[in-house]
Amino acid sequence: MGSELSTKAMQTLDDARQSILGVRVFGEAYEVGDVTVIPVSVVRGGGGAGGGEGQGPNDAPAVEGSAPQGSGGGAGFGINARPVGVYVVKGGEVEWQPAVNRMAAVIGGQVVAVVALLTIRKIFGKH
Q1: pLDDT digit string (tens) for 82-107?
Q2: Hey, how many other C-beta atoms are within 10 angstroms of the C-beta on 2?
Q3: 85 touches 99 (CB < 8 A)
Q4: Could you write out the DSSP letters of every residue in 7-30?
Q5: Residue 40 exposed, middle or buried by CB count within 10 Å (0-12, 13-18, 19+)
Q6: Where are the chain's structural domains?
């Protein structure tokens, strides 16, 4: 069972690796009138596999009179993909149009505002 588990875990990791190769960063191009749009994203991923431990059938049991015991298993994978922009092809010209993450810009502005307010309070506040 251990080698079967290892084989399945390695297959899972290989499938995961195949899903995040660079060829998958560009989406399928589509046309809008005389303009071709090619979406682009950033893809990140990672994975891991487990193993096993315990006693084999020929090992002495940990407790006299008990059967050998062991356990094992595990595999995992995570992936994150986010759009970064599009290439726009029109009349033989190619133009890059970045995607704007407005929420990240708003949160960044709020962080700067809070830091500025805390700094002003420290400088001009009562001691």
Answers
A1: 888 999 999 999 999 988 878 888 89
A2: 14
A3: yes
A4: HHHHHHHHHHHHHTSGGGSB---E
A5: middle
A6: 2-99
Name residue, tokens 């990791």: 13
Half-sphere exposure of 127 (CA within 13 A, CB side): 2
Residue-wise pLDDT for 34-64, tens only, equals: 999 999 988 877 777 777 777 766 666 666 7
27-39 as b/e, with b when 16 or more CB fall inside 10 Å?
A: eeeeeeeeeebeb
- Residue identified by tokens 């399945």 is 8
Nearest in space to 7 (alpha carbons), one of 73, 88, 105: 73
Cross-strand pairs, 79:
45
Please check whether residue 50 is in contact with residue 2, taking contact to mean a CB–CB distance below 8 angstroms. Answer: no
Q: Check if the beta carbon of residue 55 is closer than 8 Å to that of residue 72.
A: no
Distances (CA, A) of 52 to 47, 55, 56, 69, 116: 18, 10, 11, 11, 53
Among 12, 93, 101, CA closest to 49? 12
Q: Which token pair is 18?
A: 């195949």
DSSP 81: E
